[in-house]
Design brief:
The structure is a homodimer. By secondary structure, chain A is an alpha/beta fold. Chain A folds into two domains: about 130 residues, ATPase, nucleotide binding domain (Nucleotidyltransferase, domain 5, 2-Layer Sandwich); about 170 residues, 2-Layer Sandwich (Nucleotidyltransferase, domain 5). In chain A, about 40% of the residues lie in helices and about 20% in strands. Chain A is built from nine helices and 13 strands. A five-stranded mixed beta sheet of chain A has the order 3-2-1-4-8, sandwiched between helices. In chain A, helix 5 crosses helix 7 and helix 7 crosses helix 8. The radius of gyration of chain A is 20 Å and the shape is globular. The interface between A and B is large, with 45 and 44 residues.
Amino acid sequence: MSLIDLSKQVALGVDIGGTNTKFGIVNHRGEVLDKGNLKTDAYDKVEDFIDALYEHVQPLMEKHGAVRHFDGIGVGAPNANYYKGTIELAPNLPWKGVIPFAELMTAKFNLPCKVTNDANAAALGEMLFGAARGMKDFIMITLGTGVGSGIIANGNLIYGHDGFAGELGHTIVKPGGRKHWSTGSEGSLEAYASATGITITAKKMRAEFPESMLNQYPEDEINSKTVYECAMKEDPIAIEVFRYTGQKLGEALANFVMFSSPQAILLFGGVIKAGDFILKPAKLHMERNLLPIFRNKVKLVFSELDEADAAILGASALVWEK
Amino acid sequence: MSLIDLSKQVALGVDIGGTNTKFGIVNHRGEVLDKGNLKTDAYDKVEDFIDALYEHVQPLMEKHGAVRHFDGIGVGAPNANYYKGTIELAPNLPWKGVIPFAELMTAKFNLPCKVTNDANAAALGEMLFGAARGMKDFIMITLGTGVGSGIIANGNLIYGHDGFAGELGHTIVKPGGRKHWSTGSEGSLEAYASATGITITAKKMRAEFPESMLNQYPEDEINSKTVYECAMKEDPIAIEVFRYTGQKLGEALANFVMFSSPQAILLFGGVIKAGDFILKPAKLHMERNLLPIFRNKVKLVFSELDEADAAILGASALVWEK
């Protein structure tokens, strides 16, 4: 029979982070049928990592391969280049230089492999399986240790001429502002709206306001989680830390909206646990910096995907992308 | 014979500005076979304007229609919406409200009609006939009385979910900065890098520096043209006016590059007559605000199209857009 039974087709989704790598077998409905993980930073050589990944995945592939067809492998990784299939100069991964990752994966697994950066993968996942289902124009912002982004326009990811488009975390929101700990740029969105940025803001503000509850923690326990605890107890300084973060985020979002006029902006990642403490000021400052024709049109929403599965779903979505 | 002879197919391109409207008959090679113009602001009612346009165009259409086939009409106009075929709330046009312009044109000319905003039309013209031939990812910035933009990604114009994408002139480059004379926003690119913005900068700087040559002109003669004259005579204040303008432009361009990673940024419009006085600082400040992976990759170039024809070519390009 030549008809293809979609329910039998699956993809392997792999999400590579600096510490952990997660993988899963995903079907067309975005269901993770099986999953597992391994340590990224336990492998100094990328070939060893891929061998180990194969050892982990092989039993699952055999189990599912008996009744299902593997269409390919999708990989989300920092600094991954869709066009070239490479991972390039990723500061948080153990493997240095320019790595032909897709090629190495295909050689080992004998399956087609596509790679893209982790935020792009998350955007694809949202479009196929999450809060952006049916949307053709939206922007995904991941607020974690860093700030990543994936931009969908006309139903497609924007890769740019070289595959590196969508580095919105590094756009400047305050010229001459806070120096970024890694890039050295001044006043980037990531310097304010990442978990790292929030920690810096919190340490500065608690030093200025000795009465803040934030001063009850030792220096190394100040982070977005403890700021959230204090904000929930109505500490005005902790609330101000998030308000300031939300303002900077909102100002940046206004610029993004006037670029690609998305239907929605999806927020994702650890920082969104702060909820309305960040979302409300972000919305306010986005709207007030927009031209009237853009106002009250753009939905600002949190991701609907289960965080543990989202990255795997997003990576697997690469396999079925048009 | 059913084969289509491309050399016989033509489009009518119309560029509507606040004062003048230009039109031309254009072939597939981007040659303007015939052209003309009329006053936009002489017609208080849009129906009267379209009747007058028809009277002007009709003799040319008859002349060319004998041997050529008209595929359609493309219109570039401020605040024009590609999806809806409308011109909406355009502050510089005599016709108020939301005008179903494409529909009115089709009713009068009996030809399909597409509209888009003038900067989008210019971007299409550059892609088909100008400096961006063969490029799939570039950004067009028009620096005139205002600052407009058209963004091409994956070979297509980015329209956004509502048709209003690409308002880069209104993105904020200096939060809390110069108040825009019309929108009221603070620190937008247009407030600094438009001809109007340059005039404001020049008036401020000449007041601070009595020795500047700029003080030899009466107040109402200070504009980008007279600043250019003084800069050519090596007046350091006039040069500084352009340097500051270029810096703000370059800072904005860096943010745009990190959004869509274009192969080139094309600059167009009256302000580019300032040449290297603006281009060099723009390039410098663009590069220094980019992440290393984007540096020394993006060409910053002036439009190649003849300015008188560019708008007509761009509008006609709408007809043949995929």
